[in-house]
Specification:
Largest sheet: 5 strands, antiparallel
Radius of gyration: 16 Å
Structural class: alpha+beta
Order of helices and strands: EHHEEEEEEEH
Shape: elongated
């Protein structure tokens, strides 16, 4: 399960005056994709934080190919790029109901120790879980 897909419908409040999804909302869509992908593996942000680890985004790169519009049913594909070390990288693709590719993106997140506020290695339970799915 290197990849996972979720579907969601564009809400009116997520669009701009032109009726297109406002560009700033895509970061939230990608967060939904990666948190649900991790959740399906039994890994949650809540559990990481309870164990003293934060996972902030350090890089986001988006290519907008075609606009998404109000009430579109979108499919978001989230893919783990590689087994993490101190960083974890994902790629994303958003498709409309006609299976047209609308948006491509990548994020890099870093594991941070909440006590020291410094980067740290990914927790072993996360690495083991991800190794099992990529094997």
């Amino acid at each position: 399960m290197n990849s996972d897909k979720i579907q969601f419908r564009v809400r009116y409040g997520e669009t701009d005056q032109m009726g297109f999804v406002y560009y700033g909302n895509y970061a939230q869509y990608f967060e939904m994709g990666r948190t649900e992908w991790l959740r399906k593996l039994g890994i949650t942000y809540k559990k990481m934080e309870e164990n003293g680890i934060m996972l902030p985004v350090m890089n986001l790169n988006i290519n907008y190919l075609k606009p998404a519009k109000y009430d579109d049913l979108l499919t978001l594909k989230t893919t783990l790029i590689k087994i993490p070390s101190a960083k974890i990288e994902f790629s994303y693709e958003i498709f409309n109901e006609e299976n047209e590719l609308l948006t491509k993106a990548n994020t890099t997140l870093v594991f941070v120790n909440m006590k020291t506020n410094k980067p740290t290695k990914a927790p072993e339970y996360i690495i083991e879980t991800l190794r099992n799915i990529t094997a």
